[in-house]
Design the sequence.
């Protein structure tokens, strides 16, 4: 099996964001906004001698084994890597910054920044067909078999943790935890959507050959050619269609502008592209 080192590097970045958001913002304020990290925060508040990172590692063992068996070895392997990366990073942060206190006295500020940082990190991980471990594995299983979005699946999976947070930390912090879970699930869905947004472009130009060469050779994307007849003068014209990233579209538009300022371009936003050169079938 070929190892995609780029994918693992991206997962590592997502893991770092989750670790930072959890340790510096959620944990010090006892905001258990769902997930294994939330459960670890609850247990740590009851038994302070038990490190959050070690608790997360222990609880993840059972769930990532389930992930390997139910979803597959690729997902399982990436999830193992991600979950232990997060736990290890939090253990390291606990050594570097022991007895961390809330950065702000405003719990809502702590919640917002914690959820923003963790949510972006989790979305990056999910977009690589992995999870951060724990209840996110349950969410991935729900997503696979019930076709519910990842964000909503996380919301379903984290209800138990938020209820436990209400019992352990009081109704106020429990409500903050529920707010955090809702915000987190919404953020994850939107970040994943933005990461998978592409432009579907149709081009009619007198410089068609140059544009095709630019798309294939410079942008390293394929294109489809078909012919259409104009309603005004009945002339048959070549239409070039391609699907490219937002950054590639800006480059393509600038290139076309320089060689044919009268070219006709239509653009549609595509929320998901599956196939060679894009996302894999999962």
Sequence:
């Amino acid at each position: 099996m070929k190892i995609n080192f780029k994918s693992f590097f991206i997962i590592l970045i997502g893991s770092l964001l989750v670790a930072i958001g959890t340790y510096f913002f959620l944990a010090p304020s006892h905001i258990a906004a769902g997930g294994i990290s939330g459960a670890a925060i609850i247990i740590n508040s009851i038994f302070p001698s038990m490190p959050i990172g070690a608790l997360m590692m222990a609880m993840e063992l059972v769930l990532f084994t389930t992930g390997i068996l139910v979803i597959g070895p690729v997902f399982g392997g990436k999830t193992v890597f991600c979950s232990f990366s997060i736990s290890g990073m939090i253990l390291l942060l606990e050594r570097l910054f022991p007895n961390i206190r809330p950065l702000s006295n405003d719990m809502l500020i702590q919640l917002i920044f914690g959820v923003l940082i963790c949510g972006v990190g989790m979305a990056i991980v999910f977009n690589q067909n992995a999870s951060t471990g724990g209840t996110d594995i349950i969410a991935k299983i729900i997503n696979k078999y019930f076709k519910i979005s990842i964000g909503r699946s996380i919301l379903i999976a984290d209800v138990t943790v938020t209820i436990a947070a209400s019992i352990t930390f009081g109704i106020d912090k429990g409500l903050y935890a529920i707010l955090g879970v809702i915000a987190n699930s919404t953020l994850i869905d939107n970040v994943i959507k933005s990461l998978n947004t592409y432009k579907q472009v149709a081009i009619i130009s007198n410089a068609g050959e140059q544009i095709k060469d630019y798309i294939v050779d410079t942008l390293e994307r394929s294109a489809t050619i078909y012919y259409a007849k104009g309603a005004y003068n009945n002339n048959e014209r070549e239409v070039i269609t391609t699907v490219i990233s937002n950054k590639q579209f800006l480059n393509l538009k600038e290139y076309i502008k320089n060689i044919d300022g009268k070219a006709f371009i239509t653009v549609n936003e595509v929320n998901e592209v599956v196939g060679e050169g894009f996302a894999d079938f999962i």
